[in-house]
Specification:
The chain has about 220 residues and is of the alpha/beta class. Helix content is about 45%, strand content about 25%. The protein has a 7-stranded mixed beta sheet with strand order 3-2-1-4-5-7-6, sandwiched between helices. The protein binds S-adenosyl-L-homocysteine, 3,4-dihydroxybenzoic acid (DHB) and magnesium ion.
Length: about 220
C-alpha cells in the first residue's frame, strides 16, 4: 500500500463517517488562500479530537500550535457546556487567520488564541490561573515538545489527557541519520513521557491523507 491508497481510504472513511461540513471546508480554503502550510490535522484526525474532547468531558482545553485553527475548531466543538479553549500560536499571521476561522465557526466566545512563543505565553497562563486543563493538544514546533510536556503536566488536573501530534514523522523517529531539532525533540518527548511518574501513555501510528505519522496519548495520574 502506498500513500495514494492511504489517502483514498481516508476519503472513503471520511465520506462514510463524517457529516458534510461547509465551515471546515471553508477553513481549509481560507488557510490555503492565506498561504498557510497545509499541515493541519486531517478531517478524520480532527473528528478524533472532537470525540476525545467529548469522551473526556473536557471543559478546559489547551492547544499549543494553532495554525489556522482547524484542529482548534474540532477540539472546541467537543467541549461541554461553558467550555473554553486556549490556543497558543507564535505567528501573528496564523493567529489572525485562526481568529477569523473561529469566528466563522461561531466559536469566538469559546476560543482564546494567544500570540507569542508558547514558552513565553505558558507562564502567563499559569500566572492568570488558567486551567487546570482537562485536555492538552501539543502540536507546535517539535523541538519544543519536551518543554511543552512539562508545562502540560503542570497545568493539568489529575485525570487529564495529553495528546502529542506528529511523533512518527514518516519513520524519521527511528532513522539514525535524522537528528534535526524536531526529531530530537520528539525523541526526548517520548522518553520523558515514558519515564514520567505521573503519566500512563501509549502511541498510535497513523497512515492516511497526511501520510505516515502518529499520536502519543497520555493520562495524567
Ligand atoms: N494544530 C494545527 C497545526 C499546527 S502547525 C492544526 O492541526 O490545525 C504548528 C503551528 O505551531 C504553526 O502555526 C507554528 O507557527 C506554530 N508554532 C511554531 N513554533 C511555536 C512556538 N514556539 N509557540 C507557539 N506556536 C508555535
Ligand atoms: C508539520 C507540523 C505538524 O504539526 C504536522 O501535523 C505536520 C507537519 C511540519 O512542521 O512539517
Ligand atoms: Mg501536527
Amino acid at each position: 500500500m502506498e500513500r495514494q491508497d492511504w489517502a483514498a481510504v481516508d476519503d472513503h472513511l471520511a465520506r462514510a463517517l463524517l457529516p458534510a461540513d461547509g465551515v471546515l471546508e471553508q477553513v481549509l480554503e481560507e488557510n490555503r488562500a492565506a498561504g498557510l502550510p497545509p499541515i493541519d490535522v486531517s478531517p478524520l484526525q480532527g473528528a478524533f479530537l472532537t470525540l476525545l474532547a467529548r469522551i473526556t468531558g473536557a471543559r478546559r482545553v489547551l492547544e499549543i500550535g494553532t495554525l489556522g485553527g482547524y484542529s482548534t475548531i474540532h477540539l472546541a466543538r467537543g467541549l461541554g457546556d461553558g467550555g473554553r479553549l486556549v490556543s497558543l500560536e507564535f505567528e501573528p499571521r496564523h493567529a489572525e487567520v485562526a481568529r477569523r476561522n473561529v469566528e466563522r465557526a461561531g466559536l469566538t466566545g469559546v476560543v482564546d488564541v494567544r500570540v507569542g512563543a508558547a514558552l513565553d505565553t505558558l507562564p502567563v497562563l499559569e500566572r492568570e490561573g488558567a486551567g487546570p486543563f482537562d485536555l492538552v493538544f501539543i502540536d507546535a514546533d517539535k523541538g519544543g515538545y519536551p518543554q511543552y510536556l512539562q508545562w502540560a503536566v503542570r497545568l493539568s488536573r489529575p485525570g487529564a489527557v495529553l495528546v502529542g501530534d506528529n511523533v512518527v514523522r514518516r519513520g524519521r523517529l527511528v532513522d539514525p541519520a535524522a537528528d534535526d531539532p524536531g526529531v530530537r525533540g520528539v525523541r526526548t518527548f517520548l522518553e520523558a513521557v515514558g519515564a514520567h511518574p505521573r503519566l500512563t501513555a501509549t502511541a498510535l501510528q497513523t497512515v492516511g491523507a497526511k501520510g505516515w505519522d502518529g499520536f502519543a496519548i497520555a493520562l495524567v495520574d
